[in-house]
Amino acid sequence: MIGPGHVKGHALTSSKQSTIGWAFGPFRLCLPFIHYRFEWPDYCQGLALCAVDLAAIPLMTDLLGMPFAAALAVVIMNGLLYLTHHLLGDPVVPGWITPAIPLLIAYCESYAPGTERVHALIAFQFMLGAVSIGLGATGLARHVVRAVPSALKAGVVMGAGLAAVNTVFADDGRFWTYPVTISIAVGLAFALIFSRGFNALKTRYAGAAFVGKLGIFPIIGLAIVVAPLAGEAPWPDVRFGFSAPDFATLWSGYTVFGVGLPPVGFFIAALPTVVATYLVVFGDVLQSRALLDEAAAARPDRPIDYSPDRAHLIFGARNATMSIAGPDVAMCGPLWSAMHVVIVERYKEGRAAMGSMIGGAGSFRWGTNTGLLLLPIVSLIQPILGVALALTLLIQGYVSVRVGIMEARNRTDLGIAGVTAAILVTQGAAWAIGVGLVLSILIHGKALARPMPDELFDSHPHASDEDDA
Known about the structure:
The protein is mainly α. 65% of the residues lie in helices and 2% in strands. The chain has helices spanning 40-54, 57-64, 68-87, 101-109, 115-138, 140-147, 150-169, 179-194, 196-204, 206-213, 217-229, 247-253, 256-259, 264-298, 308-325, 337-347, 357-373, 375-381, 385-407, 411-427, 429-444, and strands at 12-13, 22-24, 27-29, 304-305. A hairpin with a 2-residue loop joins strand 2 (22-24) and strand 3. The model is unreliable at 1-10, 14-18 and 451-469 (pLDDT under 50).
């Protein structure tokens, strides 16, 4: 397995080799217009795709009984913390821990509604943050990335993708509420982002190149029109002014400032769910690395500085902070894979399309924060929040399955990964990691600790991805 500071034939570097930002400790301070070029196409996408951030509001109102305005305050605080990733040198688009949301909801629902359930969420998110910070600060995160068997890695990443797709198409999934809009939006999204034919058009026609730079921004705009025409959502009631989050209600009724610290028993009870959730987070870290490997291979002109340890410190601190100031059912994850892959695909097109990964990721998150504050944008997008959520889940599913398969070193690994992924979807992450580890030991035996012949791919899986050519 390739370690964090070395990628075969790629320009993924350690922080010491990076030329972007001011170094301090494990971080690099990267400021807009000083250390990176502001990317307006990504900023504009962010303005529209604050819709996905807003889709976390129903999760909190349903589980905690939180008023809309208080849930909006949680979304805005989480949005501000998204900025810490690129500002501190982590070249990713951060997001939720999406596949683990059903797991967390089931855990919280085992407690009575009200203060007890709020305490359960606070304790869980604080412990998740503490574990992540501990792994990043001690450097153990780096060793975890190196030590996990490739079959298990592949299974976790694939399973996360399958879980995301299952969330959309389950009996109570959002597809059945917006079948026409989601079908059109997802089909167009895959054509614009992954199609070879459209990639060829972008090299020949300026109009196609311009649309390609906008990522899924045009798709959100199309959904705003298609959903009402299909009778799946009302026409937007556009209002002007600024959004009005209710921090007072949030802090008085749903944080330690109002309900007090959870008893010690809540922190102990949360540990199994924390461990299971971290396994999903670990898959996002692997996916971040794999996608950045692809980007580095396509752009040797600009080293990409990615450190799993630094990523753990940042998203761990985000979770710990939110557990105190605004517990979040969507959680604070290291990667929004659906949007990150859009940024990566544009980055691959060269320096003229995007100066740096930090610039693309940062500009996008500046855009989402702007959008959350503007009432015209929030009210325009509000009717299709479900479509935006489904869109990001399905793109994440595609990318996760693709990257997961590429993590497998041979057919045997792929078989183990398939079983692991299926168990992750049906039984949860804890069962999946246990079964995947046992199968890896039983099947590979002592060979598990040795480099294995690559029976499935002719070269390193990230070095050539024919589907993205």
